[in-house]
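Hi there, hope your week has been kind to you so far. Please have a think about how the structure follows from the sequence. I've dropped the whole record in just underneath, so have a look:

_____
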Amino acid sequence: MNDADKEAIASVIASYRNAFLHANSSHLMEVFHPDCSIQGIVGGEAWVGDRDALATFCDSNPPGSESGMEVDYQILDAAGDSAAVKAEVSNYHGIGFVDFLAMQKTDGKWWVVGKAFSST
């Protein structure tokens, strides 16, 4: 993976962080591919949806900045136009999340095409 791709992925993660930090789902539309799939566990309950459902969740909660939310990430692996990223979200209103993001570069743009997550 070249430096330009690493910077582009960092930008995607920054937009993802900003969406929840400011409770502004417009950032999510820049991050999640329209055909993405999202599944996870929150407080022991299954959550399944798409980017629109995630946007609704984002907008219906207070900004993460109110609780001191932070996001750390690492690129787990990359090959060609595909990458896997682990994002650890801490203190989103007292909840932590570990997100595994499947990313794909399409027409020169990196997108999250799948997300699996669990609350901690």
About this structure: The mean pLDDT is 94. Helices lie at 3-21, 26-31, 51-59. The domain at 3-119 is CATH 3.10.450.50 (Nuclear Transport Factor 2; Chain: A,).
